Amino acid sequence: xxxxxxxxxxxxxxxxxxxxxxxxxxxxxxxxxxxxxxxxxxxxxxxxxxxxxxxxxxxxxxxxxxxxxxxxxxxxxxxxxxxxxxxxxxxxxxxxxxxxxxxxxxxxxxxxxxxxxxxxxxxxxxxxxxxxxxxxxxxxxxxxxxxxxxxxxxxxxxxxxxxxxxxxxxxxxxxxxxxxxxxxxxxxxxxxxxxxxxxxxxxxxxxxxxxxxxxxxxxxxxxxxxxxxxxxxxxxxxxxxxxxxxxxxxxxxxxxxxxxxxxxxxxxxxxxxxxxxxxxxxxxxxxxxxxxxxxxxxxxxxxxxxxxxxxxxxxxxxxxxxxxxxxxxxxxxxxxxxxxxxxxxxxxxxxxxxxxxxxxxxxxxxxxxxxxxxxxxxxxxxxxxxxxxxxxxxxxxxxxxxxxxxxxxxxxxxxxxxxxxxxxxxxxxxxxxxxxxxxxxxxxxxxxxxxxxxxxxxxxxxxxxxxxxxxxxxxxxxxxxxxxxxxxxxxxxxxxxxxxxxxxxxxxxxxxxxxxxxxxxxxxxxxxxxxxxxxxxxxxxxxxxxxxxxxxxxxxxxxxxxxxxxxxxxxxxxxxxxxxxxxxxxxxxxxxxx
Length: 594
Hints:
Layout (H helix, E strand, L loop, with lengths): L7 H4 L2 H8 L3 H4 L6 H38 L32 H6 L6 H17 L33 E7 L5 E7 L4 H12 L7 E7 L4 E4 L6 H6 L6 E6 L5 H4 L10 E2 L8 H9 L6 E9 L6 E9 L2 E5 L10 E5 L4 E6 L2 H5 L6 E6 L10 E4 L3 H16 L1 H16 L10 H4 L4 E2 L6 E2 L3 H24 L8 H7 L13 H10 L6 E6 L7 E7 L2 E12 L2 E5 L10 H10 L10 E2 L6
Helix pairs in contact: 4-6
């Protein structure tokens, strides 16, 4: 009996041939003995070898088709509760098989089907994979360690989209040269940034802080409006430009005193005005009205160094100049600048940089201009009041009601606050209560005016006691004369050794409003001081001289008629009393280190 599935080399083995010869002849060759029968047997033997190779090929093809069928049915195989495949024990119908060739009964007895080991292993691995995948999914306890191929159970797409606003770093400089980098949102306005800087620098928020757009290479600067977006303004600035953080008390001075702001000869109206304060505001803020600001200005020709004095007219549509005297006929008006895509700046050093005829220059700069000076429309006024009038009119005609809303927002917030909560002070100072111990028992002073008066009296009494103790020879860390010359240096309104020109520049930068002042050391007299004061948009200087009385040093503004032991007393007095000054001291110039 032949071995099924044996290779040809085994069939030709001598031991196998001996066994075949020992087989009964009736089973080997039914035709009988003889040479022909032996040759037929050899021929059949060769045919058996050929059929064996064909049978192996057919079985390989059948097993490959069986593997493909199992793979196609893997998705529809039902699962039991234990996660294994549901298979029937008596398999009634198997997967489709290829049709086997017809073989003789002798071939079926001698040979069985060969086993394709590689295909069976692949089927076993596939079955093991099906069993593993049928188990329930376990969430990954460390989703941050997952790769892209195996994300956690909660994918980023299943969560609501985050609306994170874009942020940007902005560098802001102060008057003393210090700077601070602040991270702001893309929609932050100039007012919001000023309030943030006030909070970070521990200043008192009196709604007079502003953000200044400074261009040192062009010699220009302007105060940003409260509603302007800081990021949007910074996108139009050159790399040399920067933001400054400073005071500006004259930002909304027009709304506080509109009657005395514009000279009558500079303003004309398209309709009759009754001259009241309300009517004046409505004419500027109402978009249907057509106010005109007119007057003579020095105009620098584009691309040239020469200046011409022309009659200029400012309207809502733009800035025009007359080509024929003071005529405002349409055929004589020529457009100088547009208000829509431009901003108005003040010249820092117009005489030195642009050969301006006066120091009161202004400039209309298009937003697209960064470093080019050829497209700048440079103008120059005769005095500071005229320049302030033109710049304010430009802002009113461009922004209108939006500018008035910027002015009203701090006023409305201030009205909502209690008078006891402003100005904002430290927690320890707010927890103090004014007391009166003049009687037998102490009492709480509830009247704010009486409490303030008591505080002033206590301060004056403390100074008198300290002076008397020093005269009597008590141990004091400071001599009276040394104390009076040092105590004022801690105040914000004292600016030390600065020149006359520098003090005027600081006053102009922080707004030419009545009562704006600062104190500085005198350059002509080392023992004296100077009070620099603004009144009616003009800057005046008053010398504070020392004087002696009974061995004590005092300071006076009126040649010794009113004496003060130190400069703090002097400033406190003139903040409450006008005295020999043209107006009371109202606002002090301050420099804050960021």
